[in-house]
Protein backbone atom coordinates (compact mmCIF):
# COMPACT_ATOMS: atom_id res chain seq x y z
CA UNK A 1 0.00 0.00 0.00
CA UNK A 2 1.45 3.37 -0.98
CA UNK A 3 2.05 6.01 1.62
CA UNK A 4 -0.82 8.50 1.08
CA UNK A 5 -3.58 10.02 3.10
CA UNK A 6 -7.33 10.25 3.19
CA UNK A 7 -9.57 11.00 6.13
CA UNK A 8 -10.82 7.43 6.21
CA UNK A 9 -7.63 5.42 6.34
CA UNK A 10 -5.37 4.96 9.35
CA UNK A 11 -2.17 4.55 7.33
CA UNK A 12 -2.40 7.85 5.56
CA UNK A 13 -0.75 10.18 8.00
CA UNK A 14 2.62 11.22 6.62
CA UNK A 15 3.46 13.07 9.84
CA UNK A 16 3.07 10.15 12.23
CA UNK A 17 -0.49 10.96 13.48
CA UNK A 18 -3.76 9.22 12.87
CA UNK A 19 -6.26 10.79 10.42
CA UNK A 20 -8.58 13.51 11.63
CA UNK A 21 -11.64 11.29 11.94
CA UNK A 22 -9.74 8.70 14.01
CA UNK A 23 -8.31 11.42 16.21
CA UNK A 24 -11.76 12.78 16.91
CA UNK A 25 -13.05 9.31 17.78
CA UNK A 26 -10.20 8.77 20.23
CA UNK A 27 -10.27 12.34 21.57
CA UNK A 28 -6.62 13.06 20.99
CA UNK A 29 -7.45 16.75 20.80
CA UNK A 30 -8.75 16.45 24.37
CA UNK A 31 -5.43 15.19 25.64
CA UNK A 32 -5.35 11.38 25.26
CA UNK A 33 -1.85 9.92 25.05
CA UNK A 34 -2.27 7.47 22.13
CA UNK A 35 0.82 5.42 22.87
CA UNK A 36 -0.04 4.61 26.45
CA UNK A 37 -3.79 5.23 26.57
CA UNK A 38 -3.73 7.64 29.50
CA UNK A 39 -5.84 10.80 29.70
CA UNK A 40 -4.09 14.08 30.35
CA UNK A 41 -5.26 17.41 31.62
CA UNK A 42 -2.66 19.95 30.54
CA UNK A 43 1.05 19.08 30.78
CA UNK A 44 1.38 15.42 31.72
CA UNK A 45 4.40 13.37 32.86
CA UNK A 46 4.74 10.26 30.72
CA UNK A 47 6.67 7.04 31.46
CA UNK A 48 10.41 7.39 32.03
CA UNK A 49 10.14 11.14 32.50
CA UNK A 50 8.68 11.91 29.05
CA UNK A 51 6.54 15.05 29.16
CA UNK A 52 4.01 16.41 26.70
CA UNK A 53 3.49 20.16 26.89
CA UNK A 54 0.27 21.54 25.50
CA UNK A 55 0.35 24.48 23.08
CA UNK A 56 -2.88 26.42 22.58
CA UNK A 57 -1.89 28.17 19.33
CA UNK A 58 -4.13 27.44 16.35
CA UNK A 59 -2.94 25.96 13.06
CA UNK A 60 -2.62 28.42 10.14
CA UNK A 61 -5.74 28.61 7.99
CA UNK A 62 -4.37 27.47 4.64
CA UNK A 63 -5.96 25.67 1.73
CA UNK A 64 -5.05 23.38 -1.15
CA UNK A 65 -3.23 25.28 -3.87
CA UNK A 66 -1.44 27.67 -1.52
CA UNK A 67 2.26 28.07 -2.34
CA UNK A 68 5.14 28.41 0.09
CA UNK A 69 8.28 30.20 -1.09
CA UNK A 70 6.75 30.18 -4.60
CA UNK A 71 7.78 26.55 -4.76
CA UNK A 72 5.87 24.16 -2.49
CA UNK A 73 2.20 23.86 -3.55
CA UNK A 74 -0.03 22.44 -0.80
CA UNK A 75 -2.25 19.65 -2.12
CA UNK A 76 -3.83 17.66 0.74
CA UNK A 77 -4.04 18.24 4.47
CA UNK A 78 -3.33 14.98 6.28
CA UNK A 79 -3.28 16.22 9.89
CA UNK A 80 -4.55 19.29 11.73
CA UNK A 81 -4.02 19.01 15.48
CA UNK A 82 -2.51 20.79 18.45
CA UNK A 83 -1.79 24.05 16.66
CA UNK A 84 -0.01 22.67 13.58
CA UNK A 85 -1.00 21.02 10.32
CA UNK A 86 0.73 18.52 8.03
CA UNK A 87 0.30 18.42 4.27
CA UNK A 88 1.20 16.49 1.18
CA UNK A 89 2.63 19.06 -1.23
CA UNK A 90 4.33 19.32 -4.62
CA UNK A 91 7.80 20.74 -5.05
CA UNK A 92 7.23 22.50 -8.38
CA UNK A 93 10.93 23.18 -8.87
CA UNK A 94 11.97 19.51 -8.74
CA UNK A 95 8.56 18.05 -9.71
CA UNK A 96 8.32 15.68 -6.79
CA UNK A 97 5.96 15.12 -3.86
CA UNK A 98 7.08 16.32 -0.44
CA UNK A 99 5.61 16.52 3.05
CA UNK A 100 5.20 19.81 4.90
CA UNK A 101 4.59 20.60 8.60
CA UNK A 102 3.16 24.10 9.20
CA UNK A 103 2.61 26.21 12.33
CA UNK A 104 2.39 29.90 13.23
CA UNK A 105 5.72 31.58 13.89
CA UNK A 106 4.44 32.63 17.34
CA UNK A 107 3.56 29.04 18.29
CA UNK A 108 5.07 28.07 21.64
CA UNK A 109 7.01 25.21 19.98
CA UNK A 110 8.02 26.94 16.73
CA UNK A 111 11.63 27.57 17.82
CA UNK A 112 12.15 24.01 19.04
CA UNK A 113 10.63 22.59 15.83
CA UNK A 114 13.04 24.61 13.68
CA UNK A 115 16.01 23.55 15.82
CA UNK A 116 14.98 19.86 15.70
CA UNK A 117 14.49 19.96 11.92
CA UNK A 118 17.88 21.54 11.29
CA UNK A 119 19.62 19.04 13.58
CA UNK A 120 17.90 16.13 11.85
CA UNK A 121 18.87 17.48 8.41
CA UNK A 122 22.54 17.57 9.43
CA UNK A 123 22.54 13.84 10.23
CA UNK A 124 22.12 12.92 6.55
CA UNK A 125 21.58 9.22 7.29
CA UNK A 126 19.61 7.55 4.44
CA UNK A 127 17.85 5.28 6.93
CA UNK A 128 15.81 8.30 8.03
CA UNK A 129 13.27 10.25 5.98
CA UNK A 130 15.29 13.37 5.17
CA UNK A 131 14.41 16.92 6.18
CA UNK A 132 14.77 19.02 3.01
CA UNK A 133 14.06 22.52 4.31
CA UNK A 134 13.23 24.36 7.54
CA UNK A 135 12.06 27.97 7.13
CA UNK A 136 10.47 30.86 9.04
CA UNK A 137 8.65 33.11 6.57
CA UNK A 138 5.60 35.42 6.56
CA UNK A 139 4.57 34.60 10.15
CA UNK A 140 4.82 30.87 9.35
CA UNK A 141 7.26 28.16 10.32
CA UNK A 142 7.35 25.18 7.98
CA UNK A 143 9.44 22.02 7.70
CA UNK A 144 9.71 20.21 4.34
CA UNK A 145 10.62 16.51 4.26
CA UNK A 146 10.76 13.60 1.85
CA UNK A 147 7.56 11.89 0.75
CA UNK A 148 7.91 8.22 -0.16
CA UNK A 149 5.00 7.24 -2.42
CA UNK A 150 6.10 3.61 -2.72
CA UNK A 151 6.48 3.05 1.04
CA UNK A 152 4.04 1.32 3.39
CA UNK A 153 3.56 2.17 7.04
CA UNK A 154 4.17 -0.52 9.60
CA UNK A 155 0.61 0.26 10.74
CA UNK A 156 -0.71 -1.08 7.44
CA UNK A 157 1.59 -4.11 7.48
CA UNK A 158 0.40 -5.08 10.97
CA UNK A 159 -3.23 -4.60 10.00
CA UNK A 160 -2.75 -7.49 7.56
CA UNK A 161 -1.24 -9.78 10.24
CA UNK A 162 1.95 -10.38 12.25
CA UNK A 163 5.25 -10.34 10.40
CA UNK A 164 7.07 -13.59 9.71
CA UNK A 165 10.29 -14.12 11.67
CA UNK A 166 12.77 -12.94 9.01
CA UNK A 167 10.81 -9.73 8.38
CA UNK A 168 10.57 -9.00 12.12
CA UNK A 169 14.31 -9.61 12.40
CA UNK A 170 14.98 -7.12 9.61
CA UNK A 171 12.71 -4.58 11.30
CA UNK A 172 14.40 -4.66 14.71
CA UNK A 173 17.89 -4.92 13.21
CA UNK A 174 17.54 -1.95 10.88
CA UNK A 175 15.61 0.31 13.27
CA UNK A 176 17.90 -0.35 16.26
CA UNK A 177 21.06 0.26 14.21
CA UNK A 178 19.64 3.48 12.76
CA UNK A 179 18.59 4.80 16.17
CA UNK A 180 21.98 3.85 17.66
CA UNK A 181 23.63 5.99 14.97
CA UNK A 182 21.25 8.88 15.68
CA UNK A 183 21.90 8.79 19.43
CA UNK A 184 25.65 8.83 18.80
CA UNK A 185 25.03 12.22 17.16
CA UNK A 186 22.89 13.39 20.09
CA UNK A 187 19.51 12.97 18.36
CA UNK A 188 16.50 11.14 19.81
CA UNK A 189 13.14 10.30 18.26
CA UNK A 190 10.83 9.94 21.31
CA UNK A 191 7.86 9.06 19.10
CA UNK A 192 8.77 5.73 17.48
CA UNK A 193 5.26 4.48 16.71
CA UNK A 194 4.16 2.08 13.93
CA UNK A 195 3.19 5.08 11.79
CA UNK A 196 6.77 6.42 12.03
CA UNK A 197 8.22 3.26 10.41
CA UNK A 198 8.02 2.90 6.63
CA UNK A 199 8.89 -0.15 4.57
CA UNK A 200 9.99 0.67 1.04
CA UNK A 201 9.27 -1.50 -1.99
CA UNK A 202 12.88 -2.76 -1.81
CA UNK A 203 12.45 -4.06 1.77
CA UNK A 204 14.36 -1.23 3.46
CA UNK A 205 12.91 0.20 6.67
CA UNK A 206 13.07 3.98 7.00
CA UNK A 207 12.22 6.13 10.01
CA UNK A 208 10.42 9.44 9.69
CA UNK A 209 10.07 12.30 12.13
CA UNK A 210 13.47 12.02 13.86
CA UNK A 211 13.44 14.73 16.57
CA UNK A 212 10.79 16.70 14.62
CA UNK A 213 7.67 14.68 15.55
CA UNK A 214 8.51 14.97 19.25
CA UNK A 215 9.18 18.71 18.92
CA UNK A 216 5.84 19.23 17.15
CA UNK A 217 4.07 17.75 20.18
CA UNK A 218 6.34 19.13 22.88
CA UNK A 219 7.51 15.66 23.97
CA UNK A 220 10.70 15.51 26.00
CA UNK A 221 12.37 12.83 28.08
CA UNK A 222 15.00 12.74 30.79
CA UNK A 223 16.08 9.29 29.51
CA UNK A 224 15.78 9.52 25.71
CA UNK A 225 17.86 6.42 24.92
CA UNK A 226 15.76 4.29 27.23
CA UNK A 227 12.53 5.73 25.80
CA UNK A 228 13.55 4.98 22.20
CA UNK A 229 14.75 1.47 23.13
CA UNK A 230 11.44 0.61 24.77
CA UNK A 231 9.61 1.98 21.73
CA UNK A 232 11.62 -0.34 19.45
CA UNK A 233 10.77 -3.23 21.79
CA UNK A 234 7.09 -2.34 21.48
CA UNK A 235 7.36 -2.33 17.67
CA UNK A 236 9.01 -5.78 17.70
CA UNK A 237 6.40 -7.12 20.14
CA UNK A 238 3.60 -5.86 17.87
CA UNK A 239 5.31 -7.29 14.76
CA UNK A 240 5.47 -10.75 16.38
CA UNK A 241 2.01 -10.86 17.97
CA UNK A 242 -0.16 -8.25 16.21
CA UNK A 243 -0.94 -6.95 19.73
CA UNK A 244 0.10 -3.69 21.39
CA UNK A 245 2.18 -4.51 24.53
CA UNK A 246 0.12 -2.26 26.83
CA UNK A 247 -3.40 -2.56 28.16
CA UNK A 248 -4.81 0.15 25.88
CA UNK A 249 -5.62 -0.36 22.19
CA UNK A 250 -3.49 1.74 19.84
CA UNK A 251 -2.57 2.07 16.16
CA UNK A 252 -5.31 -0.33 15.12
CA UNK A 253 -3.93 -3.04 17.44
CA UNK A 254 -5.65 -4.65 20.40
CA UNK A 255 -3.90 -4.16 23.74
CA UNK A 256 -3.06 -6.89 26.25
CA UNK A 257 -5.69 -8.19 28.71
CA UNK A 258 -6.13 -5.83 31.64
CA UNK A 259 -4.60 -6.77 34.94
CA UNK A 260 -2.17 -9.46 33.70
CA UNK A 261 0.80 -7.19 32.95
CA UNK A 262 3.30 -7.71 30.16
CA UNK A 263 3.38 -11.36 29.07
CA UNK A 264 5.89 -13.01 26.73
CA UNK A 265 5.03 -12.93 23.00
CA UNK A 266 4.90 -16.73 22.72
CA UNK A 267 2.14 -16.72 25.36
CA UNK A 268 0.12 -14.33 23.22
CA UNK A 269 0.50 -16.11 19.91
CA UNK A 270 1.68 -19.61 19.05
CA UNK A 271 4.68 -20.07 16.77
CA UNK A 272 6.51 -16.87 17.74
CA UNK A 273 10.28 -17.07 17.16
CA UNK A 274 11.71 -17.63 20.64
CA UNK A 275 14.86 -15.54 20.20
CA UNK A 276 12.95 -12.54 18.87
CA UNK A 277 10.34 -12.85 21.60
CA UNK A 278 13.05 -12.78 24.29
CA UNK A 279 14.65 -9.78 22.57
CA UNK A 280 11.37 -7.86 22.71
CA UNK A 281 11.08 -8.61 26.45
CA UNK A 282 14.65 -7.39 27.06
CA UNK A 283 13.88 -4.10 25.32
CA UNK A 284 10.57 -3.74 27.19
CA UNK A 285 12.24 -4.57 30.52
CA UNK A 286 12.19 -0.82 31.16
CA UNK A 287 8.46 -1.18 31.82
CA UNK A 288 8.79 -4.03 34.30
CA UNK A 289 9.21 -7.06 32.03
CA UNK A 290 11.80 -9.75 32.66
CA UNK A 291 13.63 -11.76 30.02
CA UNK A 292 12.93 -15.48 30.04
CA UNK A 293 16.62 -16.40 30.01
CA UNK A 294 17.59 -13.90 32.69
CA UNK A 295 19.63 -11.87 30.28
CA UNK A 296 20.22 -8.20 31.07
CA UNK A 297 17.77 -5.60 29.83
CA UNK A 298 18.63 -3.52 26.78
CA UNK A 299 18.48 0.14 27.83
CA UNK A 300 19.99 1.83 24.76
CA UNK A 301 19.50 1.33 21.01
CA UNK A 302 23.18 0.41 20.74
CA UNK A 303 22.79 -2.40 23.30
CA UNK A 304 19.72 -3.63 21.44
CA UNK A 305 21.53 -3.54 18.08
CA UNK A 306 24.39 -5.59 19.54
CA UNK A 307 21.93 -8.10 21.00
CA UNK A 308 20.33 -8.49 17.57
CA UNK A 309 23.74 -8.96 15.94
CA UNK A 310 24.63 -11.65 18.50
CA UNK A 311 21.58 -13.74 17.52
CA UNK A 312 21.87 -16.48 14.91
CA UNK A 313 20.83 -14.85 11.67
CA UNK A 314 17.27 -15.60 10.63
CA UNK A 315 17.12 -16.39 6.94
CA UNK A 316 14.13 -15.68 4.68
CA UNK A 317 11.70 -18.55 4.14
CA UNK A 318 12.33 -20.79 1.19
CA UNK A 319 9.95 -20.12 -1.72
CA UNK A 320 7.27 -22.74 -2.08
CA UNK A 321 7.94 -25.07 -5.01
CA UNK A 322 5.04 -26.58 -6.90
CA UNK A 323 5.91 -29.40 -9.30
CA UNK A 324 4.49 -28.82 -12.79
CA UNK A 325 1.87 -31.29 -13.95
CA UNK A 326 3.28 -34.27 -15.82
CA UNK A 327 3.26 -33.71 -19.53
CA UNK A 328 1.18 -36.31 -21.37
CA UNK A 329 1.49 -37.02 -25.07
CA UNK A 330 -1.87 -37.04 -26.78
CA UNK A 331 -2.77 -39.65 -29.34
CA UNK A 332 -2.64 -36.96 -32.03
CA UNK A 333 0.91 -35.91 -31.00
CA UNK A 334 2.01 -39.54 -31.13
CA UNK A 335 1.02 -39.76 -34.76
CA UNK A 336 -1.59 -42.47 -34.09
CA UNK A 337 -4.74 -40.35 -34.34
CA UNK A 338 -7.59 -42.63 -35.37
CA UNK A 339 -5.37 -45.74 -35.57
CA UNK A 340 -6.05 -48.68 -33.27
CA UNK A 341 -3.10 -50.19 -31.42
CA UNK A 342 -2.12 -53.46 -33.14
CA UNK A 343 -2.44 -56.59 -31.00
CA UNK A 344 0.76 -57.67 -29.23
CA UNK A 345 2.27 -54.12 -29.18
CA UNK A 346 3.42 -53.00 -25.74
CA UNK A 347 2.33 -49.51 -24.63
CA UNK A 348 3.55 -47.13 -21.90
CA UNK A 349 1.03 -44.50 -20.73
CA UNK A 350 -0.95 -45.21 -23.87
CA UNK A 351 2.03 -44.76 -26.18
CA UNK A 352 2.97 -47.87 -28.23
CA UNK A 353 6.56 -49.01 -28.14
CA UNK A 354 7.84 -49.99 -31.58
CA UNK A 355 9.51 -53.45 -31.68
CA UNK A 356 13.30 -53.45 -32.26
CA UNK A 357 14.48 -54.04 -35.85
CA UNK A 358 15.30 -57.64 -36.72
CA UNK A 359 18.99 -58.63 -36.71
CA UNK A 360 20.85 -58.61 -40.02
CA UNK A 361 20.76 -62.39 -40.65
CA UNK A 362 20.03 -62.34 -44.36
CA UNK A 363 22.75 -62.63 -47.05
CA UNK A 364 22.51 -58.90 -47.75
CA UNK A 365 22.90 -58.17 -44.05
CA UNK A 366 26.05 -60.29 -43.77
CA UNK A 367 27.62 -58.53 -46.79
CA UNK A 368 26.82 -55.14 -45.22
CA UNK A 369 28.43 -56.11 -41.89
CA UNK A 370 31.64 -57.35 -43.54
CA UNK A 371 31.82 -54.20 -45.71
CA UNK A 372 31.62 -51.89 -42.71
CA UNK A 373 34.31 -53.89 -40.90
CA UNK A 374 36.64 -53.72 -43.90
CA UNK A 375 36.27 -49.94 -44.15
CA UNK A 376 37.16 -49.52 -40.46
CA UNK A 377 40.29 -51.68 -40.82
CA UNK A 378 41.42 -49.72 -43.90
CA UNK A 379 40.95 -46.38 -42.13
CA UNK A 380 42.99 -47.51 -39.12
CA UNK A 381 45.78 -48.78 -41.33
CA UNK A 382 45.96 -45.56 -43.35
CA UNK A 383 46.13 -43.44 -40.21
CA UNK A 384 48.90 -45.56 -38.71
CA UNK A 385 50.98 -45.34 -41.89
CA UNK A 386 50.70 -41.55 -42.08
CA UNK A 387 51.72 -41.19 -38.42
CA UNK A 388 54.77 -43.43 -38.87
CA UNK A 389 55.84 -41.57 -42.01
CA UNK A 390 55.68 -38.21 -40.20
CA UNK A 391 57.81 -39.46 -37.31
CA UNK A 392 60.47 -40.93 -39.61
CA UNK A 393 60.70 -37.73 -41.65
CA UNK A 394 61.16 -35.68 -38.47
CA UNK A 395 63.92 -38.02 -37.24
CA UNK A 396 65.77 -37.91 -40.59
CA UNK A 397 65.71 -34.12 -40.71
CA UNK A 398 67.14 -33.89 -37.20
CA UNK A 399 69.83 -36.49 -37.91
CA UNK A 400 70.94 -34.82 -41.18
CA UNK A 401 71.24 -31.34 -39.76
CA UNK A 402 72.44 -32.28 -36.30
CA UNK A 403 70.29 -29.52 -34.81
CA UNK A 404 66.81 -29.30 -33.39
CA UNK A 405 63.92 -27.79 -35.33
CA UNK A 406 62.72 -25.80 -32.28
CA UNK A 407 62.35 -22.16 -33.25
CA UNK A 408 64.46 -19.54 -31.50
CA UNK A 409 62.93 -17.36 -28.86
CA UNK A 410 61.65 -14.09 -30.25
CA UNK A 411 60.44 -15.54 -33.57
CA UNK A 412 56.81 -15.60 -34.67
CA UNK A 413 56.53 -19.23 -33.59
CA UNK A 414 57.76 -18.55 -30.08
CA UNK A 415 57.42 -14.89 -29.14
CA UNK A 416 59.22 -13.37 -26.18
CA UNK A 417 57.33 -13.09 -22.90
CA UNK A 418 55.69 -9.71 -22.54
CA UNK A 419 57.67 -7.35 -20.42
CA UNK A 420 55.85 -5.88 -17.43
CA UNK A 421 54.43 -2.39 -17.98
CA UNK A 422 55.30 0.70 -16.01
CA UNK A 423 53.05 2.04 -13.21
CA UNK A 424 51.37 5.30 -14.15
CA UNK A 425 51.44 8.26 -11.81
CA UNK A 426 48.09 9.00 -10.13
CA UNK A 427 47.53 12.72 -9.49
CA UNK A 428 44.12 12.59 -7.76
CA UNK A 429 41.46 10.19 -6.45
CA UNK A 430 37.81 10.80 -5.57
CA UNK A 431 34.76 8.83 -4.47
CA UNK A 432 32.26 7.90 -7.19
CA UNK A 433 28.86 9.03 -5.88
CA UNK A 434 26.69 10.27 -8.77
CA UNK A 435 23.34 10.58 -6.95
CA UNK A 436 24.25 11.80 -3.50
CA UNK A 437 26.95 13.09 -1.23
CA UNK A 438 30.17 11.12 -0.88
CA UNK A 439 30.15 8.87 2.20
CA UNK A 440 33.88 8.56 2.97
CA UNK A 441 35.66 11.36 1.02
CA UNK A 442 38.46 11.64 3.60
CA UNK A 443 39.48 8.00 3.11
CA UNK A 444 39.89 7.91 -0.69
CA UNK A 445 43.62 8.66 -0.43
CA UNK A 446 44.10 5.32 1.32
CA UNK A 447 43.53 3.55 -2.00
CA UNK A 448 46.80 4.92 -3.46
CA UNK A 449 49.00 5.34 -0.36
CA UNK A 450 51.02 2.16 -1.03
CA UNK A 451 49.76 0.57 2.20
CA UNK A 452 47.48 -2.44 1.58
CA UNK A 453 46.47 -2.44 5.26
CA UNK A 454 44.63 0.90 4.91
CA UNK A 455 41.45 1.13 2.88
CA UNK A 456 38.49 3.19 1.74
CA UNK A 457 35.49 1.27 3.16
CA UNK A 458 31.83 1.83 2.32
CA UNK A 459 29.06 2.36 4.84
CA UNK A 460 27.18 -0.69 6.07
CA UNK A 461 24.00 -1.28 4.05
CA UNK A 462 21.12 -3.38 5.33
CA UNK A 463 18.75 -5.77 3.60
CA UNK A 464 20.27 -5.96 0.12
CA UNK A 465 23.84 -6.33 -1.24
CA UNK A 466 23.28 -3.70 -3.95
CA UNK A 467 23.91 -0.86 -1.50
CA UNK A 468 20.65 -1.52 0.35
CA UNK A 469 18.73 -0.87 -2.90
CA UNK A 470 18.76 2.83 -1.96
CA UNK A 471 17.84 5.21 -4.77
CA UNK A 472 20.83 7.43 -4.06
CA UNK A 473 23.13 4.40 -4.49
CA UNK A 474 21.43 2.82 -7.50
CA UNK A 475 24.61 3.16 -9.60
CA UNK A 476 26.85 1.74 -6.87
CA UNK A 477 30.02 3.45 -5.71
CA UNK A 478 33.77 3.21 -6.12
CA UNK A 479 36.92 5.21 -6.74
CA UNK A 480 37.72 7.51 -9.68
CA UNK A 481 41.43 7.69 -10.61
CA UNK A 482 42.79 10.83 -12.28
CA UNK A 483 46.05 10.19 -14.17
CA UNK A 484 46.64 13.93 -14.70
CA UNK A 485 46.71 13.63 -18.50
CA UNK A 486 45.48 11.32 -21.23
CA UNK A 487 47.58 8.14 -21.27
CA UNK A 488 47.49 4.54 -22.49
CA UNK A 489 46.28 2.12 -19.81
CA UNK A 490 47.15 -1.54 -20.32
CA UNK A 491 46.51 -3.15 -16.89
CA UNK A 492 45.25 -2.61 -13.35
CA UNK A 493 46.35 -4.26 -10.12
CA UNK A 494 43.77 -3.84 -7.32
CA UNK A 495 43.70 -4.98 -3.68
CA UNK A 496 40.13 -5.16 -2.34
CA UNK A 497 39.14 -4.70 1.29
CA UNK A 498 36.91 -7.80 1.26
CA UNK A 499 36.39 -10.78 -1.01
CA UNK A 500 33.06 -11.33 -2.74
CA UNK A 501 32.53 -7.83 -4.14
CA UNK A 502 31.15 -7.43 -7.65
CA UNK A 503 33.56 -5.11 -9.48
CA UNK A 504 33.91 -3.67 -12.96
CA UNK A 505 36.52 -1.32 -14.43
CA UNK A 506 35.49 1.56 -16.69
CA UNK A 507 37.35 4.41 -18.36
CA UNK A 508 36.20 7.80 -19.57
CA UNK A 509 36.68 8.90 -23.16
CA UNK A 510 39.96 10.68 -23.83
CA UNK A 511 38.06 13.94 -24.38
CA UNK A 512 36.15 13.73 -21.05
CA UNK A 513 36.63 16.43 -18.44
CA UNK A 514 35.72 15.76 -14.79
CA UNK A 515 33.33 12.82 -15.38
CA UNK A 516 30.83 12.33 -12.55
CA UNK A 517 28.14 9.95 -13.85
CA UNK A 518 28.24 6.34 -14.96
CA UNK A 519 27.46 7.31 -18.56
CA UNK A 520 30.62 9.44 -18.59
CA UNK A 521 32.73 6.26 -18.25
CA UNK A 522 31.78 4.78 -21.61
CA UNK A 523 34.81 2.50 -22.14
CA UNK A 524 34.32 -0.80 -20.32
CA UNK A 525 37.70 -2.30 -19.44
CA UNK A 526 36.25 -5.31 -17.59
CA UNK A 527 32.71 -6.56 -17.09
CA UNK A 528 31.16 -6.89 -13.60
CA UNK A 529 32.56 -9.99 -11.90
CA UNK A 530 32.71 -11.44 -8.40
CA UNK A 531 36.26 -10.87 -7.19
CA UNK A 532 38.47 -12.15 -4.40
CA UNK A 533 40.70 -9.84 -2.39
CA UNK A 534 42.98 -9.43 -5.42
CA UNK A 535 41.83 -8.28 -8.86
CA UNK A 536 44.23 -8.07 -11.83
CA UNK A 537 43.04 -6.89 -15.23
CA UNK A 538 45.24 -6.96 -18.38
CA UNK A 539 44.18 -5.49 -21.72
CA UNK A 540 45.13 -6.84 -25.14
CA UNK A 541 44.83 -3.34 -26.57
CA UNK A 542 45.62 -0.35 -24.33
CA UNK A 543 42.83 2.15 -23.61
CA UNK A 544 43.50 5.86 -24.06
CA UNK A 545 42.04 7.78 -21.10
CA UNK A 546 42.74 10.13 -18.22
CA UNK A 547 40.05 8.90 -15.81
CA UNK A 548 39.58 5.30 -14.63
CA UNK A 549 36.65 4.12 -12.48
CA UNK A 550 36.97 1.10 -10.16
CA UNK A 551 33.23 0.51 -9.85
CA UNK A 552 31.67 -1.53 -7.01
CA UNK A 553 28.21 -2.76 -8.05
CA UNK A 554 27.44 -5.27 -5.28
CA UNK A 555 28.77 -5.70 -1.74
CA UNK A 556 29.51 -8.88 0.27
CA UNK A 557 27.95 -9.72 3.63
CA UNK A 558 30.01 -8.30 6.48
CA UNK A 559 29.06 -10.88 9.12
CA UNK A 560 27.24 -8.23 11.17
CA UNK A 561 23.84 -8.46 9.51
CA UNK A 562 24.65 -6.04 6.69
CA UNK A 563 26.72 -5.54 3.55
CA UNK A 564 29.97 -3.62 3.24
CA UNK A 565 32.90 -3.42 0.81
CA UNK A 566 35.91 -1.29 0.00
CA UNK A 567 39.20 -0.86 -1.84
CA UNK A 568 42.68 -1.07 -0.27
CA UNK A 569 45.09 -0.26 -3.10
CA UNK A 570 44.92 0.61 -6.81
CA UNK A 571 47.78 0.53 -9.31
CA UNK A 572 47.27 1.62 -12.92
CA UNK A 573 49.84 0.28 -15.40
CA UNK A 574 50.77 1.54 -18.85
CA UNK A 575 52.49 -0.23 -21.77
CA UNK A 576 56.16 -1.13 -21.33
CA UNK A 577 57.22 1.04 -24.28
TrEMBL record:
This is Serine/threonine protein kinase. Residues 410-420 have a biased composition (Basic and acidic residues). Keywords: Kinase, Serine/threonine-protein kinase, Transferase. Residues 398-408 have a biased composition (Polar residues). Residues 1-62, 317-362, 396-449 are annotated as: Disordered. It comes from the Bacteria. InterPro entries: Galactose-bd-like_sf, Kinase-like_dom_sf. The keyword Kinase applies. Coiled coil: none annotated. GO terms for molecular function: protein serine/threonine kinase activity.
